[in-house]
């Protein structure tokens, strides 16, 4: 068994003999400034510092294993007990326009992340040897393992929500999002960054009920991580339909259908199949949801 192989025994002994007690002292802070230029227009400036301590898997995986928690990229990983916390510094600029029939709130942001936690090619010869030996034993072709390490990264982007009221009942509203993430130590993109996307909805409102039909549009994503062998995805669009009824002051009923046209698509930040003997090949992206209906009841007391 793998646990009796010399590389596995070396990994086990190295982990058991290491100082595994770690303490992270992190401080988060946010400063927001707002300037009102007129009755309908205001400007915002936000500065922030955000930390993230290493997760259990990122720090304590001692045997090469596939890491879940949103990764599921097909690589095996080992942790790194000595990881430092991620430290992100962000600046955000925005404005809010509130007209009689139209509102608009765009935001621009830039985030510099020191000690970003990322899987990088492992330099642990025991871990690499173990994966290669397991490939020989099981006739598999798993790639060499990655190891969680601290790198430098940056993210920047734009988001905006807006609304346009046509009359007392009808209105349009929507969202626009764009994010780009890159590693600063090498020329690579960050893993699992959502592609540019937008939502546009037509709303109808009455005093006690409302309805909405919306289109959710995603661009292709070709800025992908080479380190994680991330695959590109094509753009797509789906249609959602929903309605709600305020039955009483305390009771609200809602219903809806998502992906009304049963569009086949791949969600870029969705997972990959890791189960053999499935309709979906191992390593292929899990498809997005088909038609999905829901009913919801909310009662406040």
Please provide a brief summary of the model.
This protein is 10% helix and 46% strand.
List the topology elements.
Blueprint: H1 6-16, E1 29-36, E2 41-52, H2 56-60, E3 65-66, E4 76-78, E5 86-98, E6 102-121, H3 125-138, E7 146-165, E8 170-183, E9 197-205, E10 209-218, E11 236-246, E12 251-258, E13 292-299
Parallel strand pairs: 4-7
Antiparallel strand pairs: 1-2, 2-5, 3-4, 5-6, 6-7, 7-8, 8-9, 9-10, 10-11, 11-12, 12-13
Protein model, in words:
With 301 residues, the protein is mainly β. 10% of the residues lie in helices and 46% in strands. It has helices spanning 6-16, 56-60, 125-138; strands spanning 29-36, 41-52, 65-66, 76-78, 86-98, 102-121, 146-165, 170-183, 197-205, 209-218, 236-246, 251-258, 292-299. Strands 1, 2, 3, 4, 5, 6, 7, 8, 9, 10, 11, 12 and 13 form a 13-stranded mixed beta sheet that branches. Helix 1 runs antiparallel to helix 3. 16% of the residues are buried.
Query: Main sheet?
Result: 13 strands, mixed
End-to-end separation in angstroms reads: 58 Å
Content of β-strand: over 45%
Helical stretch count?
Answer: 3
Structural class call reads mainly beta
Percentage of helical residues?
A: under 10%
How many beta-strand runs?
13
Unreliable spans:
none
Average pLDDT figure: 93
Order of helices and strands: HEEHEEEEHEEEEEEE
Dominant shape: globular
Rg over CA atoms = 24 Å
Keywords:
13-stranded mixed β-sheet, 301 residues, 46% strand, 3 helices, mainly beta
């Amino acid at each position: 068994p793998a646990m009796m192989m010399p590389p596995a025994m070396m990994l086990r002994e190295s982990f058991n003999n290491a100082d595994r007690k770690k303490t992270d002292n992190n401080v988060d802070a946010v400063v927001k400034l707002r300037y009102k230029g007129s009755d309908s227009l205001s400007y915002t400036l936000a500065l922030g510092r955000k930390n993230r301590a290493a997760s259990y898997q990122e720090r304590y995986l001692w045997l090469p294993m596939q890491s879940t928690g949103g990764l599921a990229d097909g690589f095996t990983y080992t942790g790194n007990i000595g990881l430092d916390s991620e430290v992100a510094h962000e600046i955000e600029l925005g404005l809010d326009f509130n007209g009689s029939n139209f509102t608009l709130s765009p935001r621009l942001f830039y985030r510099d992340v020191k000690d970003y936690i990322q899987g990088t090619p492992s330099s642990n010869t025991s871990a690499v040897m173990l994966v290669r030996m397991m490939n020989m034993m099981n006739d598999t072709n798993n790639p060499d393992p990655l190891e969680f390490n601290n790198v430098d990264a940056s993210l920047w982007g734009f988001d905006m929500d807006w609304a346009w009221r046509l009359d007392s009942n009808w209105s349009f509203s929507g969202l626009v999002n764009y994010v780009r993430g890159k590693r600063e130590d090498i020329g690579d993109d960050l893993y699992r960054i959502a592609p540019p996307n937008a939502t546009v909805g037509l709303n109808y409102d009455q005093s006690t009920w409302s309805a909405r039909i919306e289109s959710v549009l995603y661009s292709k994503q070709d800025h992908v991580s080479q380190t994680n062998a991330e695959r590109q995805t094509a753009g797509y669009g789906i249609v959602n339909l929903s309605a709600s009824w305020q039955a009483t002051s305390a009771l609200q009923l809602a219903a809806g259908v998502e992906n009304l046209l049963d569009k086949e698509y791949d969600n870029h930040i969705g997972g990959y199949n890791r189960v053999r003997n499935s309709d979906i090949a191992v390593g292929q992206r899990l498809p997005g949801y088909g038609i999905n209906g829901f009913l919801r009841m909310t009662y406040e007391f």
